[in-house]
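USER: Study each token:
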Amino acid sequence: MRKLIIFLLLGLVYVYISFAQQPSCDYKVEIIADGEEFEKEDFKWRMRATKIEGKSTNITGTAEIEDSNGKTVKSYKPWTSQSISKQKTSNEYTPNLKPGNYGITAEISVECDDTNKDNNIDKKEIKIKGEIEKANN
């Protein structure tokens, strides 16, 4: 019984040390678009993740575009557990949205102890110009 208790304590100490030695870091994400109002054919955007401090790590990035009703109209996943040392920028997206108001949300998660998770999400409101189609009742 005594050996079991010692074994369990050593296991707990090992787990604590493993988590404590995870390197700390800070990465941020930002949405890159040239403005807030666009003609339908002119809207394009990217997302960028940038290291603020810490070591290189792996990153996963996702983004969604929601219409004014909160319905997701486009989803993106530019990186899945890909390595990042300083900065990573997605491909350029041209989602061909209908006229109306939209919200873009970009989010990242990293495989290090992120010391500031507040900058792991970015939001941007945009408007696609044109006559908004009305739903038939």
Notes: The mean pLDDT is 89. Helices lie at 2-20.
